[in-house]
Amino acid sequence: MDADFEELSHDTDIITRIKQFRDITLKIEDTIKYATDPAIYEKLSNTDKIEYNLLMSYCLNSMFWMYLRAEGIDPAKHRIKLENDRLKKSMTRAKQINDRKTLMPHINKDAAQRFVRNGLWEIKNKKK
Predict the structure, then answer these.
(1) pTM tops 0.70
(2) Which of 10, 62, 104, 112 is 20 to 30 Å from 86 at the Cα level?
(3) Domain positions in the chain
């Protein structure tokens, strides 16, 4: 079964779209190479590593979701739906933990030392 692409050579819209698709895939490839650089990952804090891992999982699941759609498979009926739900719960949990750190009251050490120092101060008995 030989494909005759001569017909497509006259359709400039298809050629333009194919070139755009190629350019976008090259940009995605460059971004993935940058995002998966181990040197960058090692510099991240633990919180940033968690966010990074969740983001990478989300991206991979999204790519697989698009692949299933391109193949004509309904992703809503696939196991990937359960994985996406699990990932959403993990992202929500990570956000709650991060928010708890920022909203939690912090102790002002200097003020606490002043309270303790002044609370322990006693009036000296004056000689009568």
Answers:
(1) no
(2) 104
(3) 44-120
